[in-house]
């Protein structure tokens, strides 16, 4: 009996190690292309409208979102509702907290992140990079802070929509990848795609 358990444990361990160390070049290729194009578009918009270090469109949380929506596309955190809702809720909360306590960073920073997490949980839009979006509204550059509630729409909403559209295109280029992964989203997306192809 103990020998069988040991053998079973060994087989499971070997399988897990195999899966975790497996290099899927096709998967990595599409992750690279999607993230390159998504962030590339944001960087291009940035270069046209702003100069120097005025990084307005390229907020750090978009890099983290790219890991999710191009690299871990099956994750619940990567789905469109979470991507868009998580960032927008967090941005709104971050700006609101900054307006209420603009000079007390040791209260504003943790309060913005904590409230963002709770509201994302309540609305079922939990997206880990949203915490960074809320924090950037507090600790970002003067240019970011000066945007006020405009920060919610641009760069956050504009940037998130660019990442989402890019993810919808590149994550569905092959039969091995399917985004969004939720069946309801997937059916709707493929109905729209069929209509467009039919025309």
Automatic annotation (TrEMBL):
InterPro entries for this protein: HPP (IPR007065), TM_HPP (IPR058581)
Transmembrane feature ranges: 29-49, 55-73, 104-122, 151-170
Residues of the HPP transmembrane region domain: 23-180
Coiled-coil segments on the chain, per record: none
Keyword 4Fe-4S: no
Keyword Transmembrane helix: yes
This protein's UniProt keywords: Membrane, Transmembrane, Transmembrane helix
Superkingdom to which the source organism belongs: Bacteria
Protein name (database record): HPP family protein
Species this chain originates from: Flavobacterium hydrocarbonoxydans
